[in-house]
């Protein structure tokens, strides 16, 4: 199994292509659509780095997965789907996120909140077969209600559940987030064998250190600065809440969610052929 990371500098996001080397079948996890809010422009430079690799390796991509509805970048999954005929995959509880944000954006009763914008919805324990690889979904809510960790062989793609040990854990103050629930989700991951590899969805390079995106269950359990085996639930929840209270909303949360609950598609163009994003005022 080969794991190839791609780092999107603008959003500090890691996209992964994971494939079986013999069969050349693989998946894309957490792709990024480029977006410039200043002039309302979208483009696909970040996805093109991924597709160039896929094409050079001559891979078949039956699935494109998001770990959750990201709040810091627009998903590139629709682009990957169009390019390779890949089926889009996300957690079943995206329906909860869709319902909440349909109301926030006042999308009306016609906006479906049953997850139909995605091709496959996974529950805890569900599996996808990708050639000889098995992708297993582990429901790890807390950052959002729909967050999944994808386990492929000995590798976990944890999304925004935990980051590198020197950065800690995901924030829990978005709609539907919960520090108590995130604590329990991380315990699930920490119960896995110590050598299990962890691949993070972001790296913010604290202190200006070099990019890091891979750790292990053993390393996180012993050294994660916010939640390790010595941290009680009460301590974690208190500190997480205090920290979240100091954080600003991500710059792209309002554009991102509108696209990401639509599986990486822009809103339907209006009569002039232009897609519009809404900016709800005084609601977050
Ligand atoms: Fe996130």
Topology:
Layout: E1 2-8, E2 13-20, E3 25-29, E4 32-36, E5 41-43, H1 45-57, E6 60-65, E7 74-75, H2 77-84, E8 87-91, H3 94-105, E9 120-122, E10 127-130, E11 133-139, E12 148-152, E13 155-157, H4 179-190, E14 197-199, E15 214-216, H5 217-223, H6 233-244, H7 253-260
Helix pairs in contact: 4-6
Bound molecules: fe (ii) ion.
CATH architectural designation = 4-Layer Sandwich
Tally of DSSP helical segments: 7
How many β-strands, per DSSP? 15
Could you tell me the strand content as a percent range?
Answer: 15-25%
Give every kind of bound small molecule, once each: fe (ii) ion
> Cα-atom Rg, whole angstroms?
18 Å
Biggest sheet: strands, sense, closure?
Answer: 6 strands, mixed
Q: Structural class of the secondary structure composition? A: alpha/beta
Shape: globular
Order of adjacent strands in the largest pleated sheet: 1-2-3-6-8-9
> Order of SSEs, N→C?
EEEEEHEEHEHEEEEEHEEHHH
Tell me the span between the first and last alpha carbons: 42 Å
Number of domains: 1
CATH-defined superfamily: Ribonuclease Z/Hydroxyacylglutathione hydrolase-like
CATH topology: Metallo-beta-lactamase, Chain A
Low-confidence segments, ≥5 residues, pLDDT <50?
none
Mean pLDDT: 97
Helix content: 25-40%
Fold and architecture overview:
It is a single chain. This protein has one domain: Metallo-beta-lactamase, Chain A (4-Layer Sandwich), CATH 3.60.15.10. It starts with a strand and ends in a 24-residue tail after the last helix. β11 and β12 form a beta hairpin. With 284 residues, it is an alpha/beta fold. The protein has a six-stranded mixed sheet with strand order 1-2-3-6-8-9, with helices on one face. Strands 10-11-12-13-14-15 form a six-stranded mixed sheet. The model has no long low-confidence stretch (mean pLDDT 97). The site of fe (ii) ion has 6 residues, from loops. Fe (ii) ion binds next to loops.
């Amino acid at each position: 199994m080969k794991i190839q990371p791609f780092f999107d500098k603008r959003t500090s996001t890691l996209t992964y292509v994971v494939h079986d080397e013999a069969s050349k079948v693989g998946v894309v996890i957490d792709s990024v659509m480029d977006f410039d809010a200043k002039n309302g422009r979208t483009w696909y430079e970040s996805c093109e780095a991924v597709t160039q690799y896929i094409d050079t390796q001559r891979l078949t991509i039956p699935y494109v997965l998001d770990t959750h509805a990201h709040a810091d970048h627009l998903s590139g999954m629709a682009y990957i789907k169009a390019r390779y005929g890949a089926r889009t995959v996300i957690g079943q509880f995206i329906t909860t996120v869709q319902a909440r944000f349909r109301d926030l954006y006042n999308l009306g009763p016609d906006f479906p909140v049953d997850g139909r914008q995605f091709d496959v919805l996974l529950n805890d324990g569900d599996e996808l077969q990708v050639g000889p690889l098995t992708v297993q979904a582990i429901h790890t809510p807390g950052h959002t209600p729909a967050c999944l960790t994808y386990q492929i062989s000995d590798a976990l793609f944890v999304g925004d559940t935990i980051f590198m040990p020197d950065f800690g854990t995901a924030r829990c103050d978005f709609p539907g987030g919960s520090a108590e629930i995130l604590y329990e989700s991380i315990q699930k991951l920490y119960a896995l064998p110590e050598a299990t590899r962890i691949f993070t969805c972001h790296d913010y390079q604290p202190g200006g250190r070099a990019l890091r995106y891979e750790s292990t269950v053993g390393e996180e359990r012993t050294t994660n600065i916010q939640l390790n085996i010595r941290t009680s639930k009460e301590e974690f929840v208190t500190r997480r809440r205090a920290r979240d209270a100091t954080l600003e909303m991500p710059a792209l949360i309002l554009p991102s969610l509108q696209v990401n609950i639509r599986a990486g598609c822009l809103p339907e163009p209006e009569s002039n052929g232009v897609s519009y994003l809404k900016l709800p005022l005084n609601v977050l």
